Amino acid sequence: MKRLKIYGLIFLVLALLISCEDPLPVELVQETSSQEYDVDVITPQPDAAVFTGYDSTGITSPVPVNRSVISLSGIKNTYKNITVSKGYAQAIFYDTTKPVFSRNNVLIGFKTLEFGRVKFDNDTARVVPHRLFYRENGVIKDTLLGVKHILVYRKRILPFRSNFPYDSSVKFHFDFFGQKPFLQTIKTPVEITAKLKLEGSRKNNDLRVELSWNKAPKGDIIVIIGGLLEGRNEIIPLIRLKSIKTDKIIIRNSLLQKIPFNKFDALIFTVVRHFSQSVSTIRLGDIFISSQSIHNIRVDTPKN
């Protein structure tokens, strides 16, 4: 691996943040550690972002590349030492012959299809409207794409916990109303529990974040850094860290200082342990299947 000097990293990340092209991976090698991970800039232009709901799905791409997406997500949200858990399973069937564009003629998604009935194990998913939120010229807008199938995992008797089936398997059942159903067994990962330590300051140019989490024998890890928009409840994914080999990483000031702090009330550090696969079917086309354990940790934006 080529070792990048810190000033080289700063130049590359800055170039990515101001670019209008698709994000490119940048290798980051810590100067004082053997830890390494790759960096993707997800949203080079926050004022023209598409809200992906990545904090509840782990999926950051605003435009689906597969006709159908099936996902199961066990989620923990932590803010000021309080953690609340929830879980979702959902299926969205995209019609890639019907693209949706913004007024600036930018592709932001596809219309969805409504047909058949979805079950996760023995629970039937509800059919609900599927809306896409995006920013255009700095203004938040939304459009109705169609419907999606969603199942909410309810809270247990214990407070702040859901009954999401971690480290297990879920049977997905799609009923075509009288025709042969589509069946798929989906494995779920071990629940992830992350810890965050914030050190230094922006003023002294030594701000850094240390993230760690529990180990598991299987499941890839990604970390997403997002921003909670000032005065709103929408979160924009900014940077994705991937190819992580350990259970602890350090995010240094050289990367953090590229975040436009003045646009956000808080930063969201999302740690995801996930499984994913793709399958092909005759009726549903290509399907992207993912299951993930997600831990979102909110940190108020450092002011100095």
Please outline what is shown here.
The chain is mainly β and 304 residues long.
Which tags fit this structure?
304 residues; mainly beta; 12-stranded mixed beta sheet; 4-stranded antiparallel beta sheet; 3 helices; disordered N terminus
Distance between the termini: 35 Å
Please count the beta strands (DSSP E, at least 2 residues each).
Answer: 19
Instruction: Enumerate the spans where pLDDT stays under 50 for 5 or more consecutive residues.
Output: 1-34
Q: Sheet bearing the most strands, described?
A: 12 strands, mixed
Number of helices: 3
- Let me know the average pLDDT: 83
Overall outline: globular
Structure write-up:
- The protein has helices at 6-18, 54-57, 253-256; strands spanning 26-29, 36-41, 50-51, 68-79, 82-101, 107-112, 117-120, 123-124, 126-136, 139-153, 169-175, 182-187, 194-199, 208-213, 220-229, 235-242, 248-251, 264-281, 285-300.
- Strand 9 and strand 10 form a beta hairpin.
- The protein is mostly beta strands and 304 residues long.
- Strands 1, 2, 3, 4, 5, 6, 9, 10, 15, 16, 18 and 19 form a twelve-stranded mixed β-sheet that branches. The chain has a four-stranded antiparallel β-sheet with strand order 8-7-11-12, with no helix packed on it.
- It is built from three helices and 19 strands.
- The chain is 7% helix and 54% strand.
